[in-house]
Every structure is written in structure tokens, then in C-alpha cells.
Amino acid sequence: MACNYPIKFEPILLEKIWGGTKLNQFFNKKSTAPNVGESWEISTVPNAVSVVANGALKGQDLVQLIKAYQEDLLGSKVYNEFGNEFPLLIKFIDAKTDLSIQLHPDDALAKKRHNSFGKTEMWYVLQADKNAKLIVGFNQPVDKALYLEKLGQDELLSILNAETVTAGDVFFIPTGRIHAIGGGVLVAEIQQTSDITYRVFDWNRVDSQGKGRELHTELALEALDFSHQNTYKIQYDEKRNEVQLASCPYFTTKLIAVANTLSKINDKDSFVIYMCVAGAVSIQYESGEDVLLKTGETVLLPATLKNYTIIAEEKAKLLEVFID
Question: Which residues in the chain are classed under CATH 2.60.120.10?
């Protein structure tokens, strides 16, 4: 059995204390829960492994696929580096209320402490309520002493960079950079395969038993990047049909506008992921039926699928993700 077709997966929906209903409302992610915060679209995180939703491989999970198809699925370079572990975790996130202020360790620290990859990530804003914000980085030069002073005085927010956002805004979050998704923001998130998060502030909220969530003040301190930038938002030309948003050793992401028909050749030694962030497209390939991709859906194209055509069912925008 070949894996040579665009593979869709069943979304894994996770309820969160800060989650809402937009994933169902906007993307038809089937859930009646009032607090679904995340839809994991492609994952090999233990206990949250994606299961194929379409085609000949329907019902198999992504770990099984990687073991069976190896380089054919991932590409030789990717498989040689990561083996049977899929290197990325692909999500949609709905923050009804603010996420914790947090950061993530780099590969070396995550390996040492958790036997895990680090967590470099990026956000593409899909929708934002009026005046909704993201927190990314510091708003001034900060050192360890100032950070600890503000944290201890419950004044951490005064030194953080908060930005009002709208659909199409993009932020790259390297390991160590302090950040939080604000209430009212819906994002697509591309990240390394890691579920390691260090919370440093959680808005003093408590659960139904009156307990606050665990904070990781000491763990975060060694991982924290104190560098300051004048701007953290990625600037790009929204009028271009294809534009690179982010590139790092862990992933490259492009934004592609599809108005008619787009012929594609995968000349990389990597799988390709498409997240549909607006409109709808059909993906045509030689050996099988077209695969429809609607807003809020994700598809994985195996490395061996080299030639395909993307056809706009309605004017669309796609995030194209691969490993260079």
C-alpha cells in the first residue's frame, strides 16, 4: 500500500481553561464543549497521535505511517535526523481568555531536563476580536534583576510587549522568548514537536477547586531570553501570491494565495504541509481522487508526492510548511 497521496488527519480537540467555541464556529471542529482551546492537526506527541481520516491509509496513525514508509513519507534528510518521530506539531488555537505568560526551552535544555525537543514556534493570526492582543518579548531592555523585581511585585506586564493584532499578523517565537496569546485571538501555530511549557504568570486565576495552575519560575529563569527588539511582528508583502514568512532549522513557512490554478513541484527532500487559512482548494495529483481542503483544515503531502496541482474552489490562502 502506497502513502503517495495528500493525507488528512482527524483533529485532536483539547479542552483548556482558557478555550472557547471558535474552532467549532469557524472551522466546524465537531465539539459541543464550551472551552476547546486547541485542535492538534498533525501530531506524534504521546497520547495524542494523529489518525488518518482519508484514503487507503484511513484509520492508521502517524507513528505507524512513519515506521512503514520512512523516507517516502518524511524525506531522507528528515528521516535521518528525526527517525520515527514527526518533527512538527501543527495546531489551531482559540484563546477565549488569556493564555499564561510563558516560554519554552531550547533543544539542549529540553533534552537535558525532559528528554524532549525544544519548542521554536510561529503564529499566524486567523481572526482577532477588537483590541485583542498578543504578548511577544519585552518592551524595553531587561536583565535578570529587573525581571525578578517586576515578577515579585506582580508587575511583570509593565515590561512586556503587548500588540493589538488583526488577521494576517505573523509572529516568530524562538525558544526562550516570553509570550502569550491574548483572549479573543484565533491562531494557526507551527512548532517543533514538544509539549514543554514554562509558565511564569497565569493571571492569578484558579480552577473550580480554587487551585492555581503550576508555575515554573525557576525552570524558566535559565531558559529565558532577555534580548529586546524594536519590533517582533514579521513584516511581509500581503499583495504577493507567494511570500516566505519564517525560516529556521526546524521549519520554513510560506503564505500562498490561490486564485485559480497553481501547479506545484516538490523539489525538497521533505514532506509538505498545507494549512488552509482562508477559502478552499482542491489538490489534484496523478494517481487518485482530488483532496478538498477547506478553511481550518490541514493536509500532509508525503515527500514522494512530487507533482500536484492546487485549484481554488474559492479564493484561498494556504500556509505551506516544510523542512529545508
Answer: 12-223, 242-322
Those residues whose C-beta lies under 8 Å from the C-beta of residue 104, and which sit 6 or more positions away, are 110, 118, 119, 120, 121, 173, 175, 176, 194, 196, 197, 198, 223
For residue 15, give the nearest of 188, 207, 162, 177 by alpha carbon. 207
Q: Report the candidate in 132, 110, 128 with the shortest Cα–Cα distance to residue 119.
A: 110
Separation between Cα atoms, residue 160 and residue 163, nearest integer Å: 10
Q: Which CATH number fits domain 12-223: 1.10.10.10, 3.40.50.360, 2.60.120.10, 1.20.81.30?
A: 2.60.120.10
For residues 5 and 52, is the Cβ–Cβ distance under 8 A? Answer: no
**Catalytic residue list contains 213:** no
How many helices and strands in the chain, by DSSP H and E?
Answer: 7, 20
pTM across the whole model: 0.96
Q: What are the pLDDT tens digits along the chain (324 aa)? A: 578 999 999 999 999 999 999 999 999 998 889 999 999 999 999 999 999 999 999 999 999 999 999 999 999 999 999 988 899 999 999 999 999 999 999 999 999 999 999 999 999 999 999 999 999 999 999 999 999 999 999 999 999 999 999 999 999 999 999 999 999 999 999 999 999 999 999 999 988 888 888 999 999 999 999 999 999 999 999 889 999 999 999 999 999 999 999 999 999 999 999 999 999 999 999 888 899 999 999 999 999 999 999 999 999 999 999 999
For domain 242-322, the CATH superfamily is Jelly Rolls (2.60.120.10)
SS3 category, 64: helix
Q: Name the catalytic one among 177, 199, 213, 240.
A: 199
